[in-house]
Amino acid sequence: MAGPNADLIPPARPVIGDAEIEAAVRVLRSGRVVQGPEVAAFEEEFSELVAGRHCVAVNSGTSALQLTLMALGIGPGDEVVVPSFSFAASANAVRLVGAEPVFADIEPDSFNLDPDAVAAAITSRTAAIMPVHLYGHPAAMDRLMPIAEQHGLAVVEDACQAHGAALGGQPVGAFGAAGCFSFYPTKNMHALEGGMVSTADPALARTLRLLRNQGMEQRYANEIVGANMRMTDVAAAIGRVQLRQLPEWTEQRRANAKFLDARLTGVVTPPVADAARHVYHQYTVRVSEDRDAVQQELLDRGVGSAVYYPTPIHRLKPYLGEDGRPGPWELPETERAAREVLSLPIHPSLTQAELERIAVAVNAVAVAR
Ligand SMILES: *Cc1c(COP(=O)(O)O)cnc(C)c1O
C-alpha cells in the first residue's frame, strides 16, 4: 500500500485532536455559535501570553492587522514601514486601509527589520512601523521602539508567527501600540481561522471591539462605521484548547531546534539574538547555493520543506510600480534571503526517528555539494 510519499515528513502538521473536536461539538450543540462567552474567555486567557494586555479576538491575523491600522486612524496619505521579507498580509493590511507600505531591509541573522534601515525609511508621511517577528524570532524591539518614540510613530507588531516569543523577558505583542496574532492552522496554535489584537490601551481596545462588529457595543446603537470581523465561539473554543497546549508545544519546538542545531552540517542554522526567546514557528536554514535543488533532493529522501517566502513582497504584482517593475527599493538582504531560505519540519509532533531522518537527509544532501 505504501506509495512513494507514504513516509514523507510534512513541513507542518496542524493538530485537530479529540479535545478540539469535543470543544467544537460542545459549542455547536449549545446553539450559541457566534461571538459570545467562548470568545470572551479566549481573550481573557490569551492576555496571559501578552503580559496581561487587553485582547480583542477577530476572524484572522490579517483582520487583526487591518483593524489595528484603522483603529489607529492610519489611512490615505500615510506610510507604514514594513519588511518586504514577510507574508503578503503584512503589506496587504497597509494597502487595505489606503496607506502605503514602505519596505525596509532586514538583518541577515534574524530575518527581521533592520533598525538602521527603518530609521532611514522614515519620512514626513510615516505614521507607523510594523515589525514582523518572522519565523517566531522577535524583531529588534529594543532598538525599534526608541526610533518610533523619537519620531512619534505607532508600532504595530505582526506577531502572527510568534505566539509566546519574547525579547529580554518581554513577550512579543507587549511592546508596540498593538500586537497582532494569527490562528491559521499551520501557526504555533490555531482556531481553524482567527486572529487576536493585544494592546495596553483600553480606548484602542474599545475601538477595535467596535470596528470588528459594525461599530456597535449595544445592538443597533452603532457608534462608528465598522466591519464584521468577529470570531465565532466555535473557533474560540478550539483556540482555548490549543492555547492550553501551547507551552508544551513551544518547548517541543525549541527542543527539536536544539537537536537540529547540534546535528546539521553544510547549512547555516538559525541564529538566535541575545535575550531572544525564539518559538520556532519555522526552523529556517540558509542554503547558499542551489536551494531549490536541495529542497527537491530532500523531498526525494522523504523530507518535506518549504520556502517562506520565495518572492519578497515588493516583487509581488500588487506592489510593482505602474511600469510593472519593482519600486526603487534597495533590499539586498531581503533578496538574498528569498534565494537562500529553506524551512525544515520543526513541528511538535515530530518523533525522534523523524528528527534523525531530517538530520541525516540534510547532511547527506548539503555535504554532497
Ligand atoms: C499568517 C500571517 C499573517 C496573516 O494571518 P491570517 O490569519 O492568515 O490572516 C500575517 N502576517 C504574517 C507574518 C503571517 O505569517
UniProtKB/TrEMBL annotation:
UniProt EC number: 2.6.1.-
Enzyme kind, highest EC tier: transferase
A Pfam match: DegT_DnrJ_EryC1
Keywords: Aminotransferase, Pyridoxal phosphate, Transferase
Swiss-Prot/TrEMBL cofactor(s): pyridoxal 5'-phosphate
Any GO molecular function: transaminase activity
Keyword Transferase found: yes
Family: Belongs to the DegT/DnrJ/EryC1 family.
Full protein name: DegT/DnrJ/EryC1/StrS family aminotransferase
